[in-house]
Structures are given as C-alpha cells and as structure tokens.
Design a protein that fits this description.
mainly alpha; 8 helices; 2 strands; about 45% helix; globular
Length: about 200
C-alpha cells in the first residue's frame, strides 16, 4: 500500500494554502544517518480531514531519530493534550532541530539534556511510564534545557494551522476575526460580569 507523507512545514503568520513537500522515507535516507520521525493521524482526528494524507513524516537535519522521539515525548509532558496528534508536537521538534542546526550551544544543550533523561530512565526516556516522566520533568523545570524546550514549544505548538484546526480557532491566522469567531465559544467557564468584560475593539 502506498502512502503519501504530509509536510510539517507550515506558514504560521498568514493563512496560505499548505504547500505539499512530502519527505521520502527511503532505506537510503535512513542509512545515511538522517533522523526521521513519522506516524499516522487517527481516523477520527480533525486533522485527518484537512491533511493530504493520514501519514506524516519529519526529517531532522541535526538531531537523530532517538533524540527527536525523546524531545517529542518531553513536549507532550510539558504541554499535555490527550487528543492532540503527535504530528503537531513534531512541529516543536522541527523547530528545536532548526535551532540545534544553527547554534552549537543549543545542540550541546539538547544532547546533554536528552542524555540525562535517558540515564534517569535507565535507557529510553521516551518509553518511560508517564507518571515517572512527569516527575522527571518537574525535577528539571529550572534548567536551561527545559527552558529552551518550553519556550520553543509555547510558540511552535500553538501557532500553526494544525493546532488551529484541532483547538477550533475560529478565524484566519493573523487577523482579528477571533474576537468575533470563537473567542467566546468556551463553555467550561462562566461569563464574566458585563462591567468586567470591557469593550470589543471596533478595528
């Protein structure tokens, strides 16, 4: 069965049509040492309705596959969302890989942080039970490694078209329509008193 991987390179500032640049998962590419993360979107996923394929793949330029998997698992514990697809979390790994490619200090910081997590797990930290992962994450919350991952994730994870689709962002990226399309859609908090709400900007 042939599959068509989707690109994880997305425009984040403007709602432009997603450009398809599939990554070829060939044996040759894997053997030459390129790190590759890949997975499949759930059939019931909102993203499966908009993606060109349920299969996604991400090629890493600097990090290896294991390092990518550990970082993906780490981001999922820092910003946990039970139904958010790994494809969206992989966007954070993509940006961390880009930072590692451009700065030797970041590369060393990520490598050392991943090595320490693996040592704590006695092997592969990505395979560690979630409860243990959460304790490990709490223990490193004040480290530069954690702060690099967290500060990258808070932007990469939520400011992209896939996240907008998953969380139900009601307007187009970069415009002010969210005030009128989705801002007041949440139902799990009570409405604030009118005097505390303030006026909605006209422009």
């Amino acid at each position: 069965m042939q599959t068509k991987p989707i690109t994880l390179s997305l425009e984040r500032e403007h709602a432009r049509p997603m450009q398809k640049a599939p990554i070829s998962l060939t044996r040759r590419a894997l053997l030459k040492g390129t790190g590759v993360l890949f997975g499949t979107l759930a059939v019931s996923s909102t993203l499966a309705l908009i993606a060109p394929s349920r299969v996604w793949a991400l090629e890493l330029k600097t990090l290896n596959e294991h390092e990518g998997k550990v970082l993906l698992a780490l981001v999922k514990r820092i910003y946990p969302h039970a139904t958010l697809e790994d494809a969206v979390y992989a966007l954070v790994v993509k940006d961390l890989d880009g930072k590692a490619s451009g700065t030797a200090d970041v590369r060393a910081q990520l490598t050392d942080g991943i090595r320490k997590l693996d040592k704590q797990a006695g092997g592969d930290w990505a395979a560690r039970p979630v409860a243990d992962q959460d304790r490990d994450v709490a223990a490193i919350a004040d480290t530069p490694f954690f702060q690099t991952v967290r500060s990258t994730a808070v932007v990469s994870l939520y400011s992209n078209a896939l996240a907008y689709a998953h969380f139900g962002y009601g307007a187009q990226a970069g415009d002010g329509g969210y005030l009128y399309k989705g801002f007041d859609d949440l139902s799990w908090l009570p409405d604030p008193p009118e005097q505390d709400s303030g006026p909605i900007p006209a422009n």
